[in-house]
């Protein structure tokens, strides 16, 4: 089967981990920093990092409009954590000038799990991922507070008696996927494989 070429937005954040995860999952992968690079790829990963910083760098690198255009044309994309925030149609608790790319009809809240639980892990049932639950690493993560009709919920925080029980942490709208957590750090490649398959189908 052919290896699609998938870009990782390389302005800031955990770029290298996603490049490795994509290569392990049957894709060729390159960092994307310029509109010409964006034009070459079959799909794009928006990594974790700091969404407000990435938002500012998107403007400086003249990537906002090219990225909006490619997303509107149906380019597959996968956003993890800060990447999820950038793909949203509405962001709560961010800066007024922060960019959102409107690729998924959802409202996300930044740093939603609160200061006490800055980082935590959980085992999630993830729609479309067979076998064992997915070990999810959350790092100052957002959650999804609202999804539109066209958005499929892929995973929620499991019931454990905590305040975040049932919160939506993975979604898909068409060819665009987003997770609140960081599958690139666990060595489990199933979420990246799901995305690479989706890019191949397009
Ligand atoms: N809290 C970060 C933000 O608001 C996201 C953290 C992450 O990507 N690990 O952008």
Keywords:
202 residues; alpha/beta; Rossmann fold; seven-stranded mixed sheet; 6 helices; globular; binds glutamine; EC 4.3.3.6; PdxT/SNO_CS
What does this structure look like?
- By secondary structure, the chain is of the alpha/beta class.
- The protein has a single domain (5-201), classed as Rossmann fold.
- 26% of the residues lie in helices and 30% in strands.
- The protein is built from six helices and twelve strands.
- The chain has helices spanning 15-24, 35-40, 51-60, 64-72, 82-87, 190-201, and strands at 5-9, 28-32, 43-46, 77-80, 88-92, 104-109, 119-124, 134-139, 143-147, 152-156, 168-173, 176-179.
- Strands 2-1-3-4-12-11-10 form a seven-stranded mixed sheet. It has a three-stranded mixed sheet with strand order 5-6-9. The protein has a two-stranded antiparallel ribbon with strand order 7-8.
- Glutamine binds next to α5.
- Pfam families: SNO.
- Pathway: Cofactor biosynthesis; pyridoxal 5'-phosphate biosynthesis.
- The active site is at 81 (nucleophile), 182 (charge relay system), 184 (charge relay system).
Annotate the secondary structure layout:
Layout: E1 5-9, H1 15-24, E2 28-32, H2 35-40, E3 43-46, H3 51-60, H4 64-72, E4 77-80, H5 82-87, E5 88-92, E6 104-109, E7 119-124, E8 134-139, E9 143-147, E10 152-156, E11 168-173, E12 176-179, H6 190-201
Parallel strand pairs: 1-2, 1-3, 3-4, 4-12, 5-6
Antiparallel strand pairs: 6-9, 7-8, 10-11, 11-12
The chain binds glutamine (GLN).
């Amino acid at each position: 089967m052919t290896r699609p070429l998938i870009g990782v937005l390389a302005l800031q954040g955990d770029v290298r981990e996603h490049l490795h995860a994509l290569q392990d999952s049957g894709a060729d992968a390159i960092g994307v920093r310029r509109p010409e690079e964006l034009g070459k790829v079959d799909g794009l990963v928006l990594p974790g990092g700091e969404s407000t910083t990435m938002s500012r760098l998107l403007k400086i690198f003249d990537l906002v409009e090219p990225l909006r255009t490619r997303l509107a044309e149906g380019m597959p994309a996968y956003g993890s954590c800060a990447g999820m925030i950038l793909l949203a149609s509405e962001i709560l608790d961010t800066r007024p000038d922060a960019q959102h790319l409107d690729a998924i009809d959802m409202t996300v809240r930044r740093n939603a799990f609160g200061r006490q639980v800055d980082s935590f892990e959980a085992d999630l049932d993830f729609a479309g991922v067979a076998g064992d639950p997915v070990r999810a690493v959350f790092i100052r993560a957002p959650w999804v507070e609202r999804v539109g009709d066209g958005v499929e919920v892929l995973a929620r925080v499991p019931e454990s008696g905590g305040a975040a029980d049932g919160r939506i942490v993975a979604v898909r709208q068409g060819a665009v996927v987003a997770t609140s957590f960081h599958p690139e750090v666990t060595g489990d490649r199933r979420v990246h494989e799901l995305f690479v398959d989706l890019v191949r189908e397009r």
